[in-house]
Amino acid sequence: MYLYHQENRGIAAARNTGIKGSKGKYIALLDEDDLFEPQKLEIQVPILENNPEVGFVYSDFYTFYTEQTEKTLCFAVGRNNPEKFAQTFFFNCSVAPPSTLIRRTCIENVGFFDDVSPHDDGDLLLRIALRWRVKFSDYPCARVRYHDNQTSLNRIEMYKAVIKSWKKILSTNPEFKNSLGVEASNKLSELYFKLGMAYVNKNMMKNSIAPFKSSRRLSKIYVNIRSIFMILRSRFWV
Questions:
Q1: If both were cysteines, with which of 36, 70, 130, 155 could 198 make a disulfide (CB 3.0 to 4.6 Å apart)?
Q2: What tens digit of pLDDT does each residue of 12-48 get?
Q3: Do 17 and 5 touch, CB atoms closer than 8 A?
């Protein structure tokens, strides 16, 4: 079955259209340039069938480049302690969407993908993980293709999207925020700092000021005299 948009509204909108037009119990995400390993569904479907309290199952994954044939194994976060997946994922969202198999009712209950955010997959997985258990499968079940023109390589837009998503989740889940303690502010401070550095690396110095200030307000770890000195030296001194 093929579903078409009248206009290009991005990956998240396309995923939402596909999910709403499907009838299956489980949702497997596969972008056009990625691949499933042969036994993905054979291994992951029984996990969800036998664990109705689980919102999604995920695994390690491989990466490869268009011009190369070899693949590199990447370890997903939380693999050794999936019971703490939400806390771990907040600090390092290294889970490939094709490595997941998601219970359809969970997607419907949390409100589908955010179709205006390039961080839509991470946002959805964390929202589900805050309400249901998560299971890890030790069979790497997907290959993710990286190439130079991927949207995910736009660091500025990605950092802005992650910051917006994480702030929203913290504000709507006070218990989760409290469980993270001061580290929640430290993580947001780190993201603002990386956003500022992304602007600096694009020679957009004026744009970097606001995120640097936000980073400093949240934590003094990243924006300090030493980091400012290193930024000035790297940009203006030979």
A1: 155
A2: 777 767 778 788 899 999 887 889 999 999 999 999 9
A3: yes
Tens of pLDDT, residue by residue over 117-144, are 678 889 999 999 999 999 999 999 999 9
- C-alpha 169/C-alpha 26 separation (Å) is 24
3-state DSSP of 10-60: CHHHHHHHHHHCCCCCEEECCCCCCEECCCHHHHHHHHHHHCCCEEEEEEC
* Residue pair 61/144 in contact by the 8 Å Cβ criterion: yes
In order of 7, 176, 178, 216, the CA distances from 190 in angstroms are 36, 19, 18, 9
Give the residue ranges of the chain where pLDDT is below 50. 1, 150-153, 238
Torsion sign over Cα 82, 64, 127, 177: positive
Q: Which helix (H) or strand (E) holds 146?
A: strand 142-146
